[in-house]
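queue> pop job 88
queue> type: inverse folding (structure -> sequence)
queue> payload:
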């Protein structure tokens, strides 16, 4: 069965899609506390991992981290009534989140080299702090990129 839309109907359908995308962008306003909390969770995990703690302690920290991320995601879903992963955005958003992961990994590796490899333990705290600040600032930038791509996908 073939459907023929008039130019006016096609324009109206495209306008409805754009309005829906714009509405979604308006709903994806991250609360001010979201990225700092995520930064503390990821930074704390990286700090503990780069210190080189005993395996049971690391597993406990990972459990706390996982619970924290779950609660953070649940709170965001409740507020925004929608959830999308970091890779669900458009090409610019995917590039941004990929670059964030690469930068975070580079910071973690550098911190591990200093803390565990060179046994300069206090650098683990700097590593966690750097990751936390990076996650907070980059997360806010990422939100702007996602909303802009939703409003104008071209």
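queue> result:
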């Amino acid at each position: 069965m073939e459907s023929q839309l008039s130019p006016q109907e096609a324009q109206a359908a495209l306008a409805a899609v754009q309005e829906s995308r714009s509405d979604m962008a308006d709903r994806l306003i991250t609360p001010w506390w979201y990225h700092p909390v995520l930064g503390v969770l990821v930074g704390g995990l990286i700090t503990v991992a780069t210190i080189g703690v005993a395996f049971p302690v690391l597993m406990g920290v990972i459990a706390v981290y996982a619970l924290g991320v779950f609660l953070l995601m649940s709170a965001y879903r409740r507020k925004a009534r929608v959830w999308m992963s970091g890779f669900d955005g458009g090409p610019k958003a995917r590039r941004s989140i990929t670059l964030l992961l690469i930068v975070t990994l580079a910071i973690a590796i550098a911190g591990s080299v200093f803390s565990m490899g060179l046994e300069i333990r206090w650098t683990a705290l700097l590593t966690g702090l750097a990751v936390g600040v990076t996650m907070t600032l980059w997360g806010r930038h990422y939100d702007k990129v996602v909303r802009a791509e939703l409003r104008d996908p071209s």
